[in-house]
Amino acid sequence: MSSLSSAVMIPASIPSPSQGVWHLGPVPIRAYALCILAGIFVGYWLGRRRWVARGGSAPVLADIMFWAIPFGLVGARIYHVITDAEQYFGPGEGSPIDALKIWHGGLGVWGAVGFGALGAWIACRRAKVPFLAVADAMAPGIALAQVFGRFGNYFNQELFGRPTTQPWGLEIAFGNRPTGYQDFATFHPTFLYEAIWNLGVVALIILLDRRFKFGHGRAFFLYVAAYTAGRAWIEDLRIDTANHFLGLRLNVWTSIILFVLAVVAFVISAKRHPGQEDVSSGPAAGQPADSEKQAAEPSDAEPDAAEPSDAKPDAAEPSAAKADRDEAPTAKANDGSRD
């Protein structure tokens, strides 16, 4: 019995990976990058299924993603560098060149969403499809991509929370513990909290969308509101370096503001634009924005089609020539009488 009690009292914990980089010859294979790529793949897969189910064109969505994904990655890095500028431009260990080392981690989700949305908007304008309809289709896919992306933080042993003795505490290697926390071995696994929360966001959007048929951005606004509701309290657990304003981390304020804006946008959209947009009228993938004008070009060929009627005078030429030949002897005879 005593041995059983001792076994029960042994604290459990989540071990961290022993490494996050493998080498294929001289080429480093980083777990962080693999997690990001996996997130992009599954997010696009889910968004594509939803887009096609609404009647949208899969090739058109692929074209849009070719704009949105690079914009999103660049925006994610820019947001991180701006909100944690002291890591790269401050005194001490910061180095500006490190701002370009995206493989070391450091991607801000709101930079990814904001810049990714900008790229998608540009592509939607070119393809002549409603941007908010694309955002609705991709909303749960974005949340699902974040689930995979958070495991990149797990492999990097970064962005964890305060110390904890809970059985799900995350083991962090001594060298990755922040200053002042070297004596603690286990921390709140905030990457796992957010991954689980985001899975709930995915399920929430899909279930409510099936019930209410969201359109005009409402599924996307629901994603923003649901994600920020969780991000605010998870962010407050973290102990990594961050800028503060009025006692709260900057990302907490960002979450609060975006939550309010998303709720307001959802309500306005529901009142002004009930129902869903028609997404089946966009041009084929790769077709330029002035495709309607190009499609009208066959009408310009109508004069060519009418050319056979123009050939009628040519068909009448033999009879005219015959008339000229008939007139010629008469004219000659008249000339002879005058002589």
UniProtKB/TrEMBL annotation:
PROSITE patterns (UniProt xref): LGT
Subcellular localization(s) per the UniProt record: Cell membrane
Sequence similarity: Belongs to the Lgt family.
Pathway linked to the protein: Protein modification; lipoprotein biosynthesis (diacylglyceryl transfer)
BP GO terms, sorted: lipoprotein biosynthetic process
Molecular function GO terms recorded: phosphatidylglycerol-prolipoprotein diacylglyceryl transferase activity
Keyword Isomerase annotated: no
EC identifiers of the protein: 2.5.1.145
Protein name: Phosphatidylglycerol--prolipoprotein diacylglyceryl transferase
UniProt biased composition (Basic and acidic residues): 322-339
Binding site residues for a 1,2-diacyl-sn-glycero-3-phospho-(1'-sn-glycerol): R150
Span list, region Disordered: 274-339
Keyword list, A-Z: Cell membrane, Lipoprotein, Membrane, Transferase, Transmembrane, Transmembrane helix
Membrane topology: Multi-pass membrane protein
